[in-house]
Amino acid sequence: LLDRALGEIGTADADGLEALRVSLLGKSGSVTMLLKSLGGMDPEARKAAGAGINLLKTQITDAISARRATLDEAALAARLAAERIDVTQPPRPEPLGTIHPISRTVEEIAAIFGAMGFAIKDGPDIENDWNNFSALNIPSHHPARAMMDTFYLTGGEVLRTHTSPVQVRTMLSEPPPIRIIVPGRTFRADHDATHSPMFHQCEGLVIEEGITLGHLKGCLSDFLSAFFGVPNLPVRLRTSYFPFTEPSMEVDIGWNKKTGEIGGGTDWLEIGGSGMVHPNVLANCGIDPRRYQGFAFGVGLERITMLKHGINDLRLFYESDVRWLRHYGFSP
Ligand code: PHE
Fold it and tell me: Are 137 and 243 in contact (CB under 8 A)?
């Protein structure tokens, strides 16, 4: 019995092994039956047979455990081999999108002004008339309202025509000193190769005691030099008019119109508006114009992005053409 059992156990698979265990050691298994037969023997014979049967049981039990351990080990080894991951393989390429050039410009501007101590603000696309116009010293019937090609919504609200209403929101909600930039969407009813009904601006606003035009010029020069990566980029402030600044100036940068090189050449290109915050605007926003001065500027983000990266058609920004995005977008 022992030899046959050991032979069978030694070659059994997992199911066969369990069947053998039942047939040998189970309730009516052959070894169990032998043990039971001891009860009918007289003491002498029981003593003689008992030791042998118990040894038989132990040997079979041990053999079954040993075979089970071998089978488990083999099963584990097979699984490890089957599920093996080769960590030296390069990862499968995941389809990754790119960062839109406008988003990239916003990130860069935020980093440059962040280093100068500016906070980033935003405001809603839908504005009330007072924030977008009146508080900014543009009363009803002022010609600047017509100039801005405003989208009016029913109920008297507007799609903001510039990021300047966030100047108003900020001055109303926090005391000076104020140093903020406001990158965001703006809207004007205008559409051609150089105008889109939705475009982006970045507003800047500084309100503190003793702020001068010199601070405005220095701040814009530092920002534009850093953004375009051109040390001492020529920046020209050219007198202009905005209702909310006095004096008001267009912001021009030097470039070469023929080659598109920023900072090279003798041509000038307008990239935004600026000025000293009008005393009426400060007063409208609860700030004492005799104590505080400030400057503000607004830069067109499409414009500076196109210049920086040699993009020549504004409309491409909004078409979501994946080939264009792959070419002009930035890896995350
Ligand atoms: N809001 C002006 C525009 O959209 C730009 C500007 C901002 C001018 C701040 C002066 C100061 O044209």
Answer: yes
Q: Which of 168, 201, 249 to mutate to test the pocket of ligand 1 (most atoms within 8 A of CB)?
A: 201
Q: How far is the CA of 162 from the centre of ligand 1 (A)?
A: 7
Contact at 8 Å (CB) between 311 and 231?
no
CA of 297 to the centre of ligand 1 (A): 6
Helices marked H in 83-159 — which ranges? 101-115, 129-132, 143-147
Contact 299, 201 (CB under 8 A): yes
Confirm or reject: Cβ of 245 under 6 Å from ligand 1.
Answer: yes
Q: What ipTM goes with this model? A: 0.98
pLDDT in tens, 23-45: 999 999 999 998 888 888 888 88
The neighbour count for residue 188, using CB atoms within 10 Å, is 19
> Angle CA(40)–CA(44)–CA(47) in degrees, nearest 5?
85
User: What are 180-224's pLDDT values in tens digits?
Assistant: 999 999 999 988 878 899 999 999 999 999 999 999 999 999 999
